[in-house]
Amino acid sequence: MPKAAKANGIAEGGRPMTEVGGKNGAYRAGVAVAAMASILTVWTTIVRDDGNGMGFFMVIMAVAVGWFTAGFRPAGMARTMLGVAIMQAAVGMLIATAPVTANAPGESSKALLFSGFFAVLWLISGAFFRAAAQTDS
């Protein structure tokens, strides 16, 4: 695809990027769940202010990079959400096993629960994108 087409907002296949999701309800639900997960991640990171926020912000950045790379097509976005869920779980495990967290009573389980909750949200979003991809083809 020519670079000019990408710059003008045209996705692979010649459709405008704003129409990639179309009127597909599963696509919109996937975006809504991902947006909710992102907003909740930012909010809880600000509220907790425990010094672990950078890892969680990197997870959100991975979502944005993955979606742009996938050209906002649902199949690629579903794969992105799977990778982001794995990344979220890995960040949670790293925080839970950090010496500062591991020495505080109950903090490791809180970190794992927090990351597990958000990993599930990313997987739910990915399931919606997968359903959208199957109805698109």
Give the % helix: over 70%
The rounded distance between the terminal residues' Cα atoms is: 20 Å
Q: Find the count of extended strands (DSSP E, 2+ residues).
A: 0
Number of helices: 6
Q: Report the sheet-strand fraction.
A: under 5%
Helix/sheet category:
mainly alpha
The main β sheet shows up as: none
Shape: elongated
Question: How are the SSEs ordered, and which strands pair?
Answer:
Blueprint: H1 3-7, H2 25-48, H3 53-69, H4 74-97, H5 99-102, H6 107-136
Can you give a write-up of this model?
- By secondary structure, the protein is mostly helical.
- The chain has a domain at 44-137.
- It is built from 6 helices and no strands.
- The protein has helices at 3-7, 25-48, 53-69, 74-97, 99-102, 107-136.
- The longest helix is centred in the last third of the chain and has 30 residues, at 107-136.
Name the features:
mainly alpha, 6 helices
Short description:
With 137 residues, the protein is an all-alpha fold. The protein contains 6 helices and no strands.
